[in-house]
Design a protein that fits this description.
Elements: H1 3-13, H2 15-41, E1 45-50, E2 53-54, E3 59-65, E4 75-78, E5 81-82, E6 88-91, E7 95-99, E8 107-113, E9 116-117, E10 121-125, E11 143-148, E12 157-163, E13 173-178, H3 195-202, E14 203-205, E15 213-216, E16 220-224, E17 229-238, E18 241-242, E19 246-248, E20 255-277, E21 283-289, E22 299-306, E23 311-314, E24 317-322, E25 331-348, H4 361-368, H5 379-389, H6 395-409, E26 411-412, H7 425-429, E27 431-432, H8 434-447, E28 452-460, E29 466-476, E30 480-484, H9 486-489, H10 506-509, E31 518-523, E32 536-538, E33 551-554, E34 559-572
Parallel strand pairs: 2-10, 26-27
Antiparallel strand pairs: 1-3, 3-7, 4-5, 4-8, 6-7, 8-9, 8-10, 11-12, 12-16, 13-14, 13-17, 15-16, 17-18, 17-19, 20-25, 20-34, 21-24, 21-33, 22-25, 23-24, 28-29, 28-31, 29-30, 32-33
Helix pairs in contact: 5-8, 6-8
Amino acid sequence: MNFSSSFSYFFRKSPLLRAALWAAFALLFTGISFFGGGRRNSCPEITELKPTVGAPGDTVVINGRGFGDTRDTSSVDFGGNSLTARSYLSWADDQIKIVLPPNIQDGFVTVRTRQGRSNAAFFANSTAAPIARAPDKSAVTPVIMGFTPENPLPGGAVVINGMNFGSVRDKSLVFFSVQREELRQNGGGNSSFNEESLEYSSFIPCSEDDFDYEYWSDTEIRVRIPDGAVSGAAYVQTARGKSAEVFVKIDMKAGGKKFLSPKTYLVQSSVDIDDAMNGKDSAIILRCPYPRTSSAQPIVRLTASNYEPVLSDYQHTSIYQVPPDAGTEKKRFSQDFMISVYETRTEITAARLGKKDGINPALYAAAVRPDSCVPSDNEAVRTLLADIIGDERSAYKIALLVYGYMTDVLTPFTTAKSGSSSPLDLIKTKKGDAYDFAVIFTALLRAAGIPALPDSGILVGTDMTAKNHWWSEFYLSGFGWVPVDAALGAGLAYHGWQKDAEDFDAKKYYFGNLDAQHILFSRGWNEIKPSAPQNRTVTRQHTFALQSIWEEASGKDIKYSSYWADPVVTGVY
């Protein structure tokens, strides 16, 4: 009897053999299903997004697993919106290649298949992100041929004629001279001070925040004279190089600014994330405030961070993403900054100020409208304004009258309030903290049609302790921004570095001047849009930065706790 006949005979006669064979086939089938199909039945996972910053037309590669061998009904979502079919270049189980469409938005990137949605990766549109492009080595450097008018006013428009400026501005800058004391090295050899630091001691760039850049072409640039600029050398800096410095005379008939007694601070801000439970299909991002640059605070550098930010200094924040499955152990996301701050001194000749129509229209519109922070359209604000100024129409005198009322009639609290009380309570009770003083001063000036901003940050004492603080600035045509700290002017006490402390008149000083102990984190209200409309967001009130979103989460079953620490000063020189 051969083998096949023998096997057939025993298979028919032995129930035990038949049961064993059926069990073996069942185990084999289960194993094939588990190892062959298990991966297909699991949710997709993104392991890498390259690049994380791009522009329409760029190619983006998504590496990972579980995408499936063909796209079929699967899709890639950017900021909650699915890409159209023409965006896909290739689709494989471990890699997807796409081309970015013209309407690409910032936000979370996810891959969606029949098995579910992947974890999220953050992407930003480079047209808004602060990412410099590689210089074009074959191009020639820019050349300035002249300025029109020859003697522009502070904040006034000036046309720069020349060549090789580039057809678009991209990250190019226009610099004007500024009157600053030089930064002093600590001990004569601190490595933080380099040629760039000295450059920013002598020059100031036109400001995007003030809408100074109005037109840019290869042969003509139209800009506004930046706040704090004085007569002296000016130049254009592009990816192609720096132009020769050309003298420009600025008409300072209404007065000017000086920046004195610089101090350099080492500042750390941090947030702790604890008890985090977020799966691969969810994401948590943190919007950590990034200190602002200004004419009085020209140098801000991120020197160290605990965890690498997805983007640094984007929309005036650093974006950090909490890793998926972060675990319940505490994770600290921290940023260390080196910040140089100057004392601001102003001299204003009120009779020679310009008219309202001389203010940049874009700046005016942005700084006079009510927003989520400044209730300038509130009836109580308008009624109080009318009582304070009467028939006065001079912007400078209105600001002085409002400041006089607040410093003479209102009383500042020693410490900042907690909770969600309204700054409008200051009008009723005549008492409030520095936040209330800054917001109401700004609201009263905006109600009068005067551009004004609330500023927020920290105030540093002589013992290096820092506390959250708020102040203001308002804009005068033909002069620029004027700093005001109504709370300190009204008598809020703190330990300053004033040399003549006994004779120091806080009320007089803090209208138009500001010491170098104010570290700026926000100028005005920073309205941040969520990465996707359905995302859950967290807003923090009454703190060192004025911004609409601090935390953002997407996905299901997210649980975590957060603690935002106030900034601390770790060094000063």
